[in-house]
Design brief:
Blueprint (H helix, E strand, L loop, with lengths): L2 E2 L17 E3 L10 E6 L7 E5 L13 H6 L3 E5 L9 E2 L7 H15 L4 E6 L1 H6 L2 H4 L4 E7 L12 H12 L5 H8 L5 H8 L9
Parallel strand pairs: 4-5, 4-7, 7-8
Antiparallel strand pairs: 1-6, 2-3, 3-5
Length: 205
């Protein structure tokens, strides 16, 4: 699988997110494709908060929640999906399917042997993550849901969502930071740049 890897220096100036970057290239079925994640807090904590980001963001999205979870004495794990954040970005657009992302998260959970998970999901993190309790019911203990949905595969997308999809398809060089600013007008210039950091140019998007 041909991938792009965002240069690490793109992340060097990001403020208030100084967690140690960790990587795995050994997920079953995804060998040699690097996934980034952060893993903080005690390994023997009662619960592990597993934070799944949405589109087109990365684990930086949870920068203000992670310290709260850690401060309560829990472990926090937050991966970047393939194609996002510090994770490798497959060049072939056909790779990016629901199953591709969902299966990678299942393999990631098994790889880290996570249990007693408090699943934290937002946006596409919910569409992917909310299928996990059915897949691994003994591993998921609690849910925190934000701005998301559980898809059924039935029904018709709303006109607003169709319009958004149309805009995305016509905007291959989307300014991710500006898109985030539209939804969160209080973002600082530094935060906007942090959302842009994973994508040096159009080839990474």
């Amino acid at each position: 699988m041909k991938v792009l890897r965002t240069p690490e220096e793109r992340f060097n100036t990001i403020l208030n997110f100084r967690y140690r970057p960790r990587f795995t290239e050994t997920l079953n079925g995804y060998e040699y494709v690097r996934m980034h994640y952060i893993d903080e807090g005690p390994r023997d904590a009662k619960y592990t908060f597993l934070c799944l980001h949405g589109q087109p963001t990365w684990c930086y999205l949870y920068r203000k929640m992670i310290p709260i979870f850690l401060g309560a004495g829990y472990r926090v794990v937050a991966p970047d999906y393939y194609g996002f954040g510090r994770s490798d970005k497959p060049v072939d657009d056909e790779c990016y399917t629901f199953d591709f992302h969902r299966n990678s998260i299942i393999e990631f959970i098994n790889h880290l042997q996570l249990n007693n998970i408090i699943l934290v999901v937002q946006d596409w993190g919910g569409l992917i993550g909310l299928t996990l309790p059915m897949e691994m019911p003994t591993k998921i203990s609690k849910l925190i849901l934000m701005n998301t949905a559980l898809g059924t595969g039935e029904g018709v997308p709303s006109p607003g969502f169709k319009a958004f999809r149309g805009w995305v398809n016509k905007t291959p060089d989307m300014d991710v930071g500006r898109l985030m600013l539209r939804g969160t007008p209080i973002l600082t210039p530094e935060e906007i740049e942090a959302y842009n950091a994973p994508f040096p140019d159009i080839t990474y998007k």
